[in-house]
Amino acid sequence: MKEPQTEPGRTGNGALEILRRYWWAAGLGLSALVVALASWFASSAPDGLERVAEDKSFVEAGQSNRYEWLPDYTIPGLSGEISTAVAGLIGVVIVVGVVMVLGRLMVRRRA
Amino acid sequence: MHVPALFLMHAPDGFFSAPVSGAMWIVTALVIGVAVRRAGATLDERAVPLLGVMAAFIFAAQMFNFQVAGGTSGHMLGGVLAAVLLGPWAATVVMACVIGVQGLVFQDGGLVVMGANIFNMGIVGTLGGFYIYRAIVGILGGEARGRLPAAAIAAWFSVEAAAILVSFELAMSDTTSLNVALPAMAGVHVLIGVGEAVITVSALGFIAVARADLLHLRDRPSVRLAEQGGAR
């Protein structure tokens, strides 16, 4: 019996092969998962700069924002963790869009 | 309703004075201009999708704060990871886009201080980190062997450099004094830098297993050949 033909570079490992081909989908999916889970699992303790600002009492130097769109990764009107998850997913879509358009423009300008 | 201010390493407006903020905006704008030109000249067309995925991952990682110690958290910056994969200039463009969107859309980081925030979190660690990375890779005898340890060390330094820079900007702005800010910022970020190194190495290791060819998209084939031809 002949072995089924395999393409060059094929490992025979199904999951790894899918990952190789759809690495970008895996990367975007992982990012989406991280932002979606951030509001449940990420630490809400103050971060490095915030902690130092509180401890050294210059935190009141911070001014409030001039306007608010999706302030602090929340959707106005939506409450709870789901608000942050949706805001995060919107953020992923926006940054991918901005960077891809800019990347294409940079590469095309050269051509 | 009071929404607790969550500014992460992203400084809100008011932390840095007008002269400091203005000067940092000028420097940042100049560096971004250079970065767009240099990235445009060397970026591989096939790297554009990787640019998008890196932006998504860095945005996501910056949203996910991890606990370090004593009720303090930190988040990844991602500059060294992006620079190892995309080259320092394209990585700078990606970092500036992510930090810009965070400020404009999510009010994470002020608009007046955005130049400083981009410089602190997206330029110093990205460009400086890349050259530290390259130096260590040289000492360790090439990227194949030295990629992960070099990236770990560069990632740690990129976070410390950002923390030290923020301290100087706070002091120059008279927000607080240097001998208050510097030990506190540098101290807290020793641990946050370890987190940065762990995530950077994990991501690079994952890519090496899944798609090692993506590790070589950084330079166009012509650029890569020219560099290999030179005595390095």
List the helices and strands and how they pair.
The complex is a heterodimer of chains A (111) and B (232).
Chain A: H1 14-21, H2 23-41, H3 48-55, H4 81-110
Chain B: H1 18-42, H2 48-63, E1 66-67, E2 73-74, H3 79-86, H4 88-106, H5 114-139, H6 143-172, H7 178-210, H8 221-229
Describe this structure in words.
The complex is a heterodimer of chains A (111) and B (232). Chain A contains 4 helices and no strands. Chain A is extended, with a radius of gyration of 22 Å. Helix content of chain A is 59%, strand content 0%. Chain A is mainly alpha-helical and 111 residues long. Chain A has one domain (14-62, 80-110). With 232 residues, chain B is mostly helical. Chain B has one domain: Arp2/3 complex 21 kDa subunit ARPC3 (Orthogonal Bundle), CATH 1.10.1760. Helix content of chain B is 72%, strand content 2%. Chain B has 8 helices and 2 strands; from the N terminus they run H-H-E-E-H-H-H-H-H-H. Chain B has helices spanning 18-42, 48-63, 79-86, 88-106, 114-139, 143-172, 178-210, 221-229; strands at residues 66-67, 73-74. In chain B, strands 1-2 form a two-stranded antiparallel sheet. The radius of gyration of chain B is 18 Å and the shape is globular. The model of chain B is unreliable at 1-8 (pLDDT under 50). The interface between A and B is large, with 63 and 74 residues.
Quick synopsis:
Chain A has helices at residues 14-21, 23-41, 48-55, 81-110. Chain A is an all-alpha fold and 111 residues long. In chain A, helix 2 runs antiparallel to helix 4.
